[in-house]
Amino acid sequence: MPPTDPELRHLYERYGPVILHRCRRILGDEEEAMDAVQETFARVVQHWDGFRQDASPLTWMYRISTNWCLNQLRNRRGRADKQDRHHALLEGLSGRVLSAERWEDRDTVRALLQDEEEQTQAIVVHLFFDDLSKEETARLVGLSVPTVRKRLNDFLARAQQKAGPLVAAGAALLLLVLP
Amino acid sequence: MIRLDLNQGDRPSRLDLERQLLGEADLGLADHLALHRHARELEAARADLPPLDLDRIRPPPSAARPPRRSWRPALLLIPLLAAALALVAVLPEPGANRAKGRVDLDLYVQRGGQAVQVEEGEVLAQGDRVRFAVQADGHEEVVVLSVDGRGRVSLLYPERVEQPPVPVDPDQRGLLVDAVALDDAPGPELFVAVFGPASTAEAVAMVRAAQARGGQAAVASLAQTDPGVAVLSVGKAP
Questions:
Q1: ipTM of the complex
Q2: Mutate to test the interface with B, among A18, A154, A156 (most CBs of B within 10 A)
Q3: Could you list the pLDDT tens digit for every one of the 238 residues in chain B?
Q4: Any idea where the domains of chain B sit in the sequence?
Q5: Which of B7, B18, B52 lies nearest to residue A9, judging by beta carbons?
Q6: What architecture (CATH level 2) is domain A80-179?
Q7: Which residues of B touch A94 (CB under 8 A)?
Q8: What CATH class is the domain A1-78?
Q9: Among A90, A107, B33, B122, whose Cα sits 20 to 30 Å from the Cα of A172?
Q10: Contact between A156 and B5 using a beta-carbon 8 Å cutoff
């Protein structure tokens, strides 16, 4: 039995602001975040029985909206304007502590996520953008805490590698122009 | 070294704050400042929230459910053991009723000397011998498990958790070798295929965590939330 319009409106009123706020944070793009809210609710309709049986509707919507947002981030990969910005963000990154409270750091983590596989992307989204602990993240993605920790460490190591050559290139350039 | 400023469990997560604000949990959060600030952020989002677009979120009638697929015999290419298997499967056209680019799990049971595809929700009986067909969508390995009506998670492929996941053809639908006889566990029974896990143990842990979190509904929802998971549910005759 699909949800009635009043049921949907009630859910939208209740959870819509949370999903919009979260998708804005993950995507950093107003239009895409608005789309993500509608698409999340489209999936609520499609999977209504499962949604109603889930112990936590909010957690369910977190998972669904995460998948949608990650798809959007992956779709950006081929866009030249985003790629240029991506490279610019990685410059000077080495040694930095990135905080989700700073919009420029959120941009950087989005750029770093683009080439990652889906599960690592979801882990980083929950840890960084949602500020979940590793234990909460492990529960949400269905992995053990050690696995979450390992995926995070692997992600950071790859991030360091991405930043490394650019930093090295910058240093070499500096040496060339110094008198 | 690049580092992230992460929650070490010493502050409420955003999910905690939201549950508290929605009245879904009484977590006894002492961080009133964080709660207040988050409430203000959500109010701002509420003000910007576009109207609910019912036309967009409800599927058009024609897309609500695809017509049943027509059955077409297809020759299965199963490496090595194919010739030794007595079960002859009749497979549908690959991907006929699934979105392209998705992993997929199908179940076949022997009826009257023929392998017949089991439909979602169909009732099977103890002793039925079933075979699994998977569409790996680029993945090279799979782990298949079952979750019975008592919530017991059983590993089917591979047989033991210390074994690596089972290799599969990443590009085309294929049958897993050997049939599995259903035991007397009560239904409904979920069959779960986890594609491309780092290890068999990881796939088992994921399914067990979902079962512990929300029972079979949570296990079933893995297929909606994880593009590398396919789930099929069947009933069990008493």
A1: 0.82
A2: A18
A3: 788 999 998 889 999 999 888 888 777 766 788 889 999 999 999 999 988 888 888 865 543 333 333 322 222 333 333 333 434 333 333 333 333 357 899 998 877 767 788 988 889 988 888 888 899 888 888 999 999 888 888 888 888 777 888 888 888 888 887 778 888 788 899 999 999 888 888 888 889 888 888 889 989 988 888 888 999 999 988 7
A4: 14-49, 66-236
A5: B52
A6: Orthogonal Bundle (1.10)
A7: 1-2
A8: mainly alpha
A9: A107
A10: no
